[in-house]
Structures are given as C-alpha cells and as structure tokens.
Write a structure and sequence with these properties.
Heat Shock Protein 90
Amino acid sequence: MKSHFSKEKLTLVNELIYEIKIKEAMSAEVIFFNEKATFREIQLTLKEKKISGVPILDKNSELVGIVSIDDIITAFDRGYIDEEITPYLTREVITVPQNFSVVYAIRLFEKYGVGRLPVTVSLKNKKVVGIITMSDILNALLLEVQTIAEKVKEKEAKDKLFSEKISKSVTRKPLQFEVRSDDFTNAGRVASITKKYFQNLGVNPEIVRRIAIVCYELEMNICIHSLGGSITVKMDNHQQVEIIARDKGPGIPDIDLALKPGFTTASEKIRALGFGAGMGLPNAKRCADKLKVESSLKSGTVLKAIIYLGEKNEVKKDN
C-alpha cells in the first residue's frame, strides 16, 4: 500500500513542536517591573538587555499588564516618558500556560504578531514563571535536534533490539482514551502515549509522526468543539492504524466546509487562547490516508482516520 502522503514528508521539527512543552523552552529569568515604574526606567532596561518588552507584576508575581517598545516610543512622542506607567498600562495581555506545547505559543505569535509572551502557571493561575520568544523555541528545537543527532547511531541499535522484543511481547489491544471538554491542561496526552506505543512496536518514524499529529488534532477537536468524548487507536491486521474519535455533540452542520483550511466555529474565548484556527481537521485529513466523518446534530460526531503501515513499514507479526 502506498501512501499519498509520500509527496509531503513530515520532518523531525514537525514532531518536536508538538512535544516540547513551553516550560522546557522558556526563559525562567523574568525581567519585570511594578506599576510604580516610569517609562524611562523601562526604556533603559529594554536598551540594556536588548529586549522588546517587559511584564508588569504585582507583589504576588501575578501579571497586571505589559509594556512594549511600542509603548515606549508612544511615551516619547507624547511627552510622558518620565511618568509612571500606571495610567497608560496595557492590561489585556496574551499569556501561555507552562504545560502547553510550544505549538500553542507559535500560533499565538502568528496570530497577534507579538515578540514575547509571559508564561503563567496555568490558564487560571496567572502567576508569571517565565517568558518565551520565538528565539527560545528555535533554540529548544535546535538543542533537541542536536541531542538526537549525537545519539542516533547508538539509539538505532538499541531500538532495533528493543522493538524486536516488544513486537513479540506487547499485547495488541486498542488504546482507549477519555477526552474532556475544555481540558487544555492535558492537551497532547493522547498523541504522546500513542506515539510511544507505536515507537515500541517498531513502526516507521515518519508514520508514527503522522499518527501522533492526527491524534493531537482529533483530541483538540473534541476538547474545543464538543461536550467531551473518546478516542480509540487500534492496529488492524498489521496493515493499518485506525484512529476513531467520538464526541457528544453538537455535531457538524456542514462537513465539507469544516474540512476546509481556515473555517472554524470556535468561540472568541477559544480563539483568544490560540486554538480554533480552523486547521485541526484539515491537518488530520492531510496526515491520514483516509478520513471519514459522520455527524449528527443530535448524537454528535464520529471521525475515523486510517493510516496505512505499508509492506515495508508494517510491524513484525508474532511468531
């Protein structure tokens, strides 16, 4: 079986941006000010540290606002550079929780065009624990790639022996997951567990990446658009992997439209978090060999993705 996906190879970077957590890439040393600071004080620090903005924190290290280089320029132009920042402070600040994937931060950078994002403990806890920039993410990616490259020869030999043992000992039961609505804290759990499972079975790494991305996008689709649901991942006769996502409504009125890149029904709240950009189902369709969608406005939606293992990449059958 030949996959149509061969024309569009996934790279290691595609995989890593889904796996690296923001807390692993961020800078934990936060340069910040309180509301009593003046624009002049902040301007001098931005110049010295060569940064484009700083968060404004209260005494409990919780975020109350942010001052950017644009704010400094405006203060110069309008003649209040030596005044306290309080009356002019930008208080609606885009933040990222530390346990989210860096892909979430990348989407926010692309959407809002900001240079840095304060990192908080969680969606609800606004205590700032770090700052992340695109440079931080690129450095984290390069470090991961370098580490992998240095160990690749040794790892290939160990993985070969390990996968041979696993292929004989692992029970091929379907993987089953419950996915809750709005559970962004655990976003990526299905993809992470599934990826390790198929790695241990010796499946081709490129196919494993595709499986992981489909799982991630279907998980996020349930999380964002439904009242919760489940995902089942199973291998059928060593020839293909089936990923079945079921949710509890409200259903998809127009399936063809939902599969078009950029179309979304996500709320303003979800889009403000950096999700719901209308690329989830198109990404899943792109990575799968087949994607079937059945939806009812009463009973919800069932998405079934199939990814072929192929003759060269299939897992060795038990003897």
